[in-house]
Design brief:
Shape: globular
Number of strands: 10
Largest sheet: 10 strands, antiparallel, barrel
Helix content: 10-25%
Number of helices: 1
Length: 157
Amino acid sequence: MKMKVLLISGVMIAGIITYQSFANKPAAKTYDYAWLAGSWEGDGFGGTSEETWSTPSEDGTMMGMYRHFKADGSLNFYEFMLLDETGLRLKHFSPTMEGWETKEDYLHFKAIKLTKDKIELEGLTFEKKSDNETEIRLKMKSNDGFKTEVFKMMRKK
């Protein structure tokens, strides 16, 4: 009888501890980069850029898609992106969906600083200029060292 009481008491205590650990779990934090959610259109690379971002998921991850059109209107490439507090990971695809990076590889722009108006990554910065305007600066290697491509993006209605 004592053994049953001890066993039942142990199960109840374990259940209470488990419940409390889930009940006291902190709520997902609100990420400062949620302002990026939505659809954007602008310039860049001598053509037109379109970018769409989901709202942050419970774990803070945002999914993004990008496509670039050349000046003549023809599709140049796509990107699939994931943004979280560690930075931005992306893969490029041709207009026929052939991956530029190998299956296992992706580009990773590591987070430097995330604030309410700016996402600073190694080689890439997103800056909120207003609720409807964002500037993206991409630092790239060139024959002369480095150059920065600036994208002026407007929120699509």
